[in-house]
Structure formats: structure tokens, C-alpha cells
């Protein structure tokens, strides 16, 4: 490393997408329906309550299951990455990507989740994608479960609240890891695993109106995911010892609203509850704080005798996380206004600017998160989601001048650089997203994240033509200089 070089020589720069937000082709080549295919598009939206837009009930599922087309369900058509992947990967290569984070859609491999045999057409699609990435020397970073649970496992088993789902997931993980053992090195088990508590249907396939105690069902589902992740990690190391397995957390750092001991204590508690998930996956056990929480909320986790040993023996190699915003904790939230977010809303922080969708912009928070995670776990870290959702305008000359996005990335990558100087070990950085895709929370297209514009509106109309934004060339320069030139 040169004296001026901060980022490691083989730092993994790239971008990220999820299958359910990009692929489309929801019923092509034997694919089954997934949880994402149940989420409709709502024209009228309350950005201060975005979780309502992802709420799925027995009634909405019944309607979605009888709808045979993609109309009204944007995640069914995505941006048609399924048919455009060669074009898109060529653009990623032009930017200089070292890695590309994507998910495998579980229901494309096992259409019902409990099938005896995998769907060969689905397996072949990802073979083609990985071969295309290899052609350009781009390393895949693959998420096994990114909000794409087969609907049969929801309808017939009750989602992750049912322990039987563990074996179905492990079979799926073994299938794809065996198939792609020479094409994929980096694997993540569950995307933002804490979502199972925040939004149980999205994260755990749990239909709220079917549960007597939703919180109990959600934590039971989370436990099953922890066990499944550990078993998949165990099998991964048996299949190919070179594999690197990571967990993935939606890192939501909490600041106290005031210096009052009550607010400080609330922020401490909220942060500890967020890190419960990485404690289990990186340390191999539940943190002591959770015992009292479970007792006070009448939550009883049913475990098999071997569960604790499974968790302890099969911890992850690295910790990955998404970071978009910071939150505020207080014991008196009624004193403050609220703002939106993604799966959650939060108390307003008067020191931060807010996007149209309610995100509080806090680049310094990324450095804080990196330092705290590394101090706590002493494991390599990977920032696998970080980005700005914004409405882009095409100028008369056809250009897309997204200086606001460049400024966002400049500030956040600058803080990432500071964290590395602080001594934090960071493996890589994949922006969210590499290209415009359907929004996870609002199912709209106008909330754009990518360096590449996709011609499609919120109703799914458009040519699907791809077009470079100004940020495309900026990020290309960042990668070419290994993070040294952020101007």
C-alpha cells in the first residue's frame, strides 16, 4: 500500500440489487410465486408510514394469488434484469465493478420451496449470470434470501414460524452452493435479518392476521432463521472451504434525543436490540439483555436441544450491513415530530437534512457504525447497501445531472475512508443500487437509486432503455482511483 492509499489494494467496489426488485419474469421458466409477488403498488402513499405500503394480509394475498399478470404488482416485472442482464453487467463492467451483489430468487430454484427437485431452468439462469460476471472479472456477492420466500411455504407452513422451513432452506442453500461452488466465493445468508421483527411478512413470511401473538411468532421465526443460517454456513464450509460466509443487518444506529439519562438509556437499549442479530450470528449466542425482554413480553422461544451448539459452532466469517440513516431514541416521542424512512419512522433530528422519503441524511453515522461494529466483533466488515433514493430528471439534451447523488456518495465514502484510517477492517462497498430498480418499501420506480437510469414509470410503462447518469462516470473514477479521488 502506498503512503497515500487508504483503501486496501483488493477492496471490493461495486453495486447491489435484489432479484425481487430487478429480475421481473415472475412466472417465466418454472418460477413460483414469492412473498414479493404479493405486494401491490399504491398510488397514494404516506411517506411517514412506509411500512403500511408493505403490509400484506390474508385478504391481499388471496387477491394477489388470483391475479395472473404482473399488472399492479411492480416486483413481478422489476426492470426485466432477467432478459437484460448481459447489457446491465456490461455497464457495471464499464464502471469498473470489482463485485456485484445480487440475490438468488429462492422460488426460481424451488418454485414451491418444498419441491423434491430444483428447477433446472432457474439454476441455468444464474449460471448464465455468473458466467457473464466472470467474463468481466466481476466477483459475485450472493444473498440466499432477500425477501423472496416461496409463497407455498407461507400458505402451507406459516412461513419461518414453522421449524420445518429450516430444512427446506438448507436444501436450497446446499443446491445452489454445490452448483456454483466454482463461480461464487462470497455468500450472505439472509438480507437484513432484523426485518423479520420490523416487518414480519417481508422478512419471515408471517401473515399477521393469522397469528394470535405476532411478536412471539416473529421471534420464533427469527430463531429458525438463525439456525438455518448456521446450518447453511456449516454446509458451505464442507462444500468449499474457500467460501466466505457473511450475515447481513439493517444497521439502524440510535442517538439519544437529549442528554437525559432516560433518553441515553433508551438509545442504548435500542442499539442493543439491533445488534442482537449480529451477536447471534457472529458471536454464536443470544446476548444476555434479551432474556429480560422476552420475559417482559411473554415471548418463549422453542428450541431443539442442539440449537445452541449449532449457533455457537457455525458463526460467520464477516459482517455485512446496510446503512442509510440514523434514528433518534427517546422516552417521550410525543414531544417531537416524526419522519419516515424505509421500514420504519423515527423522531426528527433537527441537525440533519431529510429526503423526500423521510430519510435523515447522516454520513458521519456510517463512520460511527463501522467503528462500533468492528470494536464489538473484530471481524471484517462489508458495506453492502448505501445509497440515495431521489427523483431524477432528464434534461433537454438527454443528460441526467444527479449531483445530489454524487454528493451523497462523496460524503459517505469519505466517512468510510475515515473509518479505515481509524483502523477498521473493511472488505468492500456495494452501493444501493447499481441501477434503478423497484423500491422495496413503496414499490415505485420514481424513487431512483442507480447510476444507470431505466426508462420505466411507476405504473410499469416505458421502453426499459438504460441510460448513464452523471454519477456513472463519477463512480467509475472513484473505483479507478481506489477511492482516492472523490472530487
Question: Beta fraction of the residues?
Answer: 5-15%
Largest sheet: 8 strands, parallel, barrel
CATH class category: Alpha Beta
Total number of domains: 1
Helix content: 25-40%
CATH superfamily, please?
Glycosidases
- Poorly predicted segments: none
Tell me, rounded to a whole number, the average pLDDT: 95
DSSP strand tally: 14
Keywords:
single chain, 487 residues, alpha/beta, TIM Barrel, 13% strand, globular, glycosidase, Glyco_hydro_1_AS, Amygdalase, hydrolase, Glyco_hydro_1
Task: Explain what the structure shows.
The structure is a single chain. By secondary structure, this protein is an alpha/beta fold. The chain has one domain: Alpha-Beta Barrel (TIM Barrel). Helix content is 40%, strand content 13%. It contains 17 helices and 14 strands. An 8-stranded parallel beta barrel has the order 1-2-3-4-5-7-11-12, surrounded by 4 helices. Strand 9 and strand 10 form a beta hairpin. Helix 4 packs parallel to helix 6, helix 8 packs parallel to helix 11 and helix 11 packs across helix 14. It is globular. The relative contact order is 0.14. The model has no long low-confidence stretch (mean pLDDT 95). This is Amygdalase. Keywords: Glycosidase, Hydrolase. One of its GO terms (molecular function) is beta-glucosidase activity. Belongs to the glycosyl hydrolase 1 family.
Produce a short descriptive summary.
The protein has 487 residues and is α/β, with parallel strands linked by helices.
What's the layout of helices and strands?
Blueprint: E1 12-16, H1 19-22, H2 58-66, H3 74-77, H4 81-95, E2 99-103, H5 106-109, H6 120-135, E3 139-145, H7 151-157, H8 164-179, E4 186-190, H9 195-198, H10 200-204, H11 214-239, E5 244-250, E6 254-256, H12 261-283, H13 289-296, H14 307-313, E7 318-322, E8 327-329, E9 338-339, E10 346-347, H15 363-377, E11 381-385, H16 403-421, E12 426-432, E13 452-454, E14 466-468, H17 470-480
Amino acid at each position: 500500500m502506498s503512503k497515500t492509499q487508504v483503501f486496501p489494494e483488493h477492496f471490493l467496489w461495486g453495486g447491489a440489487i435484489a432479484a425481487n426488485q430487478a429480475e421481473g419474469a415472475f412466472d417465466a421458466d418454472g418460477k413460483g410465486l414469492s412473498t414479493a409477488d404479493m405486494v401491490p403498488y399504491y398510488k397514494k402513499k404516506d411517506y411517514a408510514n412506509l411500512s403500511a405500503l408493505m403490509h400484506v394480509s390474508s385478504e391481499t394475498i388471496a387477491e394477489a394469488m388470483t391475479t395472473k399478470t404482473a399488472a399492479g404488482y411492480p416486483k413481478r416485472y422489476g426492470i426485466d434484469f432477467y432478459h437484460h442482464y448481459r447489457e446491465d453487467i456490461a455497464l457495471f463492467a464499464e464502471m469498473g465493478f470489482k463485485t456485484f451483489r445480487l440475490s438468488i430468487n429462492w422460488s426460481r430454484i424451488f418454485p414451491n420451496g418444498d419441491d423434491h427437485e430444483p428447477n433446472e431452468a432457474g439454476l441455468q439462469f444464474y449460471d448464465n449470470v455468473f458466467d457473464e460476471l466472470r467474463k468481466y472479472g466481476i466477483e459475485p456477492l450472493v444473498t440466499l434470501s432477500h425477501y423472496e420466500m416461496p409463497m407455498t411455504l407461507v400458505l402451507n407452513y406459516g412461513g419461518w414460524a414453522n421449524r420445518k422451513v429450516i430444512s427446506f432452506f438448507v436444501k436450497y442453500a446446499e443446491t445452489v452452493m454445490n452448483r456454483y461452488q466454482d463461480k461464487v466465493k462470497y455468500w450472505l445468508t439472509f438480507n437484513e435479518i432484523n426485518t423479520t421483527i420490523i416487518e414480519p411478512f417481508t422478512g419471515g413470511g408471517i401473515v399477521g392476521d393469522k397469528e394470535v401473538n405476532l411478536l412471539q411468532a416473529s421471534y420464533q421465526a427469527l430463531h429458525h432463521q438463525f439456525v438455518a443460517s448456521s446450518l447453511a454456513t456449516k454446509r458451505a464450509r464442507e462444500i468449499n472451504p474457500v467460501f466466505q460466509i457473511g450475515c447481513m443487518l439493517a444497521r439502524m444506529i440510535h442517538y439519544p434525543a437529549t442528554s437525559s439519562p432516560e433518553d441515553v438509556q433508551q438509545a442504548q437499549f435500542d442499539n442493543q436490540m439491533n445488534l442482537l442479530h449480529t451477536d447471534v450470528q457472529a458471536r454464536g449466542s443470544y446476548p444476555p439483555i434479551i432474556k429480560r425482554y422476552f420475559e417482559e413480553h411473554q415471548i418463549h422461544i422453542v428450541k431443539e436441544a442442539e440449537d445452541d451448539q449449532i449457533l455457537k459452532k457455525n458463526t460467520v466469517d464477516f459482517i455485512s450491513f446496510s446503512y442509510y440513516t440514523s434514528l433518534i431514541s427517546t422516552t417521550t416521542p410525543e414531544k417531537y415530530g416524526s419522519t419516515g424512512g424505509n421500514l420504519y419512522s423515527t423522531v426528527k433530528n433537527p441537525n440533519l437534512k431529510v429526503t423526500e422519503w423521510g430519510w435523515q441524511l447522516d454520513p458521519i453515522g456510517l463512520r460511527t457504525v463501522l467503528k462500533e461494529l468492528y470494536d464489538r466483533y473484530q471481524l471484517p466488515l462489508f458495506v453492502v447497501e448505501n445509497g440515495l433514493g431521489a427523483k431524477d430528471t432528464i434534461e433537454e439534451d438527454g443528460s441526467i445531472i444527479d449531483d445530489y447523488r454524487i454528493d451523497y456518495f462523496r460524503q459517505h465514502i469519505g466517512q468510510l475512508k475515515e473509518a479505515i484510517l481509524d483502523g477498521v477492517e473493511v472488505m468492500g462497498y456495494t452501493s444501493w443500487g447499481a441501477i434503478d430498480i423497484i423500491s422495496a418499501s413503496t414499490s415505485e420506480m420514481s424513487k431512483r437509486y442507480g447510476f444507470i437510469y431505466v426508462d420505466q414509470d411507476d405504473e410499469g410503462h416505458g421502453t426499459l432503455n438504460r441510460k448513464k447518469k452523471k454519477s456513472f462516470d463519477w463512480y467509475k473514477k472513484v473505483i479507478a482511483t481506489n477511492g482516492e479521488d472523490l472530487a
